[in-house]
Amino acid sequence: MQALYSLLGARRGRAVHLPALQCLAFLVIGNDGVAAAVATCGGGGGDSEGSGGGDTMLQRIVALMERSRPIETQLAAARCITYLYRCGILEDKDDVILYKVLPCVVSDFKTTSWGFPLLWEKFFHKKLSL
Fold first, then answer.
1. What whole-number distance in Å separates Cα of residue 73 and Cα of residue 118?
2. d(Cα 104, Cα 98) in Å, to the nearest integer?
C-alpha cells in the first residue's frame, strides 16, 4: 500500500498516476480489507517524492480528480473512490462523493463526443440534436 501511496504523490505526473490508480482500483474492487487499508494509509509525514507530506491516500486520490488533470486520470480516481464507497469506506452523503466524484464523472462524460449523446438516447429514446 505504501508503494501506491508514494506513486499517487509522485511529481512525475500522468505516466505514474494513471497506472497507480488502475492498480489500486483492481485491488480495491470488492475487497473490504484492501479498502480499509487504503482508508488508513498515509498521513505519517513526508515521503521521498516530497509532495504533500501529511496527506492520506484518500486525499491524494481526490486531488487527482482536479480539472487540471487529464480526463483519464480524473475518471480513474473517480473509479477508485466509487469502489471505496461500495466497500463501505465512504458514506452516501460524504462531500467527496457529492462534490468531487459526481461532478467529475458528469463533466467528463459530457466532454467525450460519444458519451452524452448515447446516454441521452438510452434514457430518452430519441436522438439528441446538438
1. 22
2. 10
What pLDDT is attached to residue 91?
83
Is the Cβ–Cβ distance between 35 and 87 less than 8 Å? yes
Phi and psi at residue 40, to the nearest 5° = -100, -5
pLDDT digits (tens, 9 = 90+) for 14-52: 789 999 999 999 999 989 999 999 989 876 654 444 445
The residue assigned the cell 480524473 is 74
User: Considering the entire predicted model, what is its pTM?
Assistant: 0.74
> What DSSP state is assigned to residue 101?
I
C-beta pairs of 94-98 under 8 Å, 24+ apart in sequence: 96/58, 96/62
Question: CB–CB of 106/68 below 8 Å?
Answer: no
Sorted by where each begins, the domain ranges of the chain are 2-90
